[in-house]
Structures are given as structure tokens and as C-alpha cells.
Amino acid sequence: MTTRIYSLLLIVLLIDASSLFAQINNMETASQFISSLASSKYDDALNNTSVDFKAKVSTEAMAKIWNGLNEQFGRYETLVIPDSIDKNATPLTLSATFQHYIVPLTFHFNAAHELVGFFIQQTPKVRSNVSKSPANFPEEEVKIKVKGGIIGGTIMTPKNPQKGMPIALIIAGSGPTNRNGNNPYGAQSNTYLLLAEALADNGIASFRYDKRLIGESAHFENNQNKVVFNDFVEDAVILGQFLKSRKDFGKLYIIGHSEGSNIGMIAAQQLNPAAFISIAGPGENLAKILETQLLTQPHLADEAKPIINLLVQGKTVKKVPPELNGLFDSSIQPFIISSFKVEPLAEIKKLTMPILLVAGTNDLQVPFNHAEKLKQANPKAVLLLIKNMNHVLKTAPASQQANLKTYANPNLPLNTDLIIGLINFLK
């Protein structure tokens, strides 16, 4: 199961230096720096940096960094500079708009207004409206009010929609994963978009959405420090109630992927859908999952264990080792504490509707034995183990490197056996 990573360090060059060529202000330095990168003028870009920066970052390295950003976030478009901003602030954060993401770039300067380092220290926001169905199924963009803000999502229907057709609520997995199944940290698989197309091709509508604080659901009154697991459950319940209220739809199905399985099985207790489908859903408490994943890195496991123990007790941790900050950053500790309280085996026992448990034998994140544990907890559930399917629901080899390559291939189709098994169960 993927963990939430809300900060991604790109460059650490916070070195005190001076220069003979001072810019007018820090904002102008940042603007000229990015403008030069966008024009592939890497020497000009480095002219805006300190002597020590240039000593550590060559023209070739600068080109590689910038091209890497464009590969990860899509083609660069523009730098957004607010009217009301301290032009000499350090650090200075400006939003860079790329093809698929809006990326907050944080710049650091010395007294001479030279750039000494830049980072991505906040979560890039997915521009969800850039991925549409290549199969041209009808889509409807929907905005739904929930506690503290608005959730944005997409309803996809068959090409010849029928009144009373069933509709599936697709709940995304962990992290800043958007409605299409993509996130800023390497997942560009279009998993949920492809799943919606497969359903539409078989007469089933679907609603996939950006969870709060993600993509077009980013404008909430609460900041991420206050988000807890139950917020996602409450959102799913409101969205499910909205779909049930629509007269053009009939049966409601809930499909939860990875962490979305936990969200979905708790929401299902209130929504009472016609069926609940868990795909790559965890069969253990998140605290145990994290401990298991860290066993392959003993030095990290030793550092993480006392932190996990405190979080299990509901206590926050002020000092986190830098190498574990992606896992236990203070901004997401309240969410982790609330997630640790969820016991999947206890929750699935409460469900009385038909249940399908799907797992792939080559899932590197949630091993297929988790589905077997869920099956033991609710023996009436149908268990579907799919050979050679990985966590993003693609056919993939067992080797880690080759498996992870499929995460970045949006054109790779979903595993065929998954679609056949899912449709057979629902129909």
C-alpha cells in the first residue's frame, strides 16, 4: 500500500554566497531563472545562481533536472506570480503550471538576490481535466458540496445510456492520486479512467472523483493538517447518496482500490450498495503494513518503530529523521493516526451485500494474501486472484523494476481477466 508523500525534495543547495551581479529582487531572479530553463538556455539560467550553486550544478545537470520536471509533470506552461507578494522573500514560493500539474516551486536566495537552491516542498496539484476518455464515452463533469468544500468528479456513461443503468462509485487509493489514477510521484497509469471505460463498454456508468485536497477538489476550508480518515468516508457517503438520488441511475456499486477499499467498506455500511468490490484492498491495519514494508530496510525500520508506536497511541511526533519525513511528516500525522484505527477485517465482517475481493499475484504494494485474509473474515465474499496483475491493475512481471515501469504507461490496458471477472460478478 502506498504511503502519503506530501513533500518531494529536488535540490538542496542552501549555501551562503555572494555575487557581483545582483538582481533587482528575488522574484525577478526566480522569474528569469525559470524563463531561461523554459527556453533551454541553461547557461543563462545558471547566471541567476550563486557561485557555489554553479560549482555544484553543471549546465548538463541543470538540463537533466528541468527535463525531468517536464517528464514528470508534463510540458511547462507558465509561472504564476501573485500581485500581493513580498518580492524579496526567502524562501519564495511560486506556482509553476505544467501540462498535467500545478507545481509549487520554493526558491531560496542569498543577500545578493542570487538563487542558492529550489525545492518542491508542497503537494503538486493535479490538473484533472486534462485526461479525457480516448474511447469517447459520454462524460459529465460534476461538482458536489461536502463538508468544508467542493468535490470534483466525472460521470462516464455507456455510449447508448439507458435509464436505470447501474453506476459504480470508484474510490481512489492513497496519496495525491486523482480521479484518473495518476499522481505526481510516478503513477501515470490512467487506472481509474481505463476502469471507467471498461464499465461503460459493458453498460455500467461510473463516477470517479478527486478526493479532498487533490486536483479540482483542492479548495477546502480545512488545511491538510486537519484532514482525517473519516473525512474521506463522509465524502464517499455524500457522493454515493448523490448518485442514488439521480433518477437516471439504478443500482449503486462501490469499487474501492487500495486505501479506497477501506474507505469504501465503511461507507458501504451507510449506503447499502448493491455490491461492494475491493481491488488490492489491505487486509491488515496500516501500522502493521508500514512495519512489514520497512523490514527490507532494517536501518529505517529501527528508526520508524518508536514513531509508529507513538502514532498508534494517538500521539504526534515532533522530530522525525529526514529520511523518514516522507512517511511521517507532521502535516499528515493526524491522518496517519486516524488511519491506524481502521481494522479492515473487522469492517468487512459488517457488510451483508455481495462482495468481490480482487487481488493480483504480482502486486508489489498489497500482496494477494491480504485479499485471502478479507475472505476469511467474510466467507460469503467472492475471491478473485488474478495471475500477473500488479497494483495499478496492469499485467506485469514480478521483478520490481519491470513492474514499476507499468505505472508510467497510461496506454497499457488493464488486465483482461480483471475486466472479465468484474463484469461477470456485477452482471
From TrEMBL:
Decide whether keyword Signal is in the record: yes
Does the record's keyword annotation contain GTP-binding? no
The signal peptide here is 1-22
Domain Serine aminopeptidase S33, residue spans: 186-273
User: Which residue intervals define the domain DUF3887 in the entry?
Assistant: 30-118
An example of a GO molecular function for this protein is: carboxylic ester hydrolase activity
What are the entry keywords?
Answer: Signal
Pfam families assigned: DUF3887 (PF13026), Hydrolase_4 (PF12146)
Q: What is this protein called?
A: Serine aminopeptidase S33 domain-containing protein
Starting at the broadest rank, the lineage of the source organism is: Bacteria, Pseudomonadati, Bacteroidota, Sphingobacteriia, Sphingobacteriales
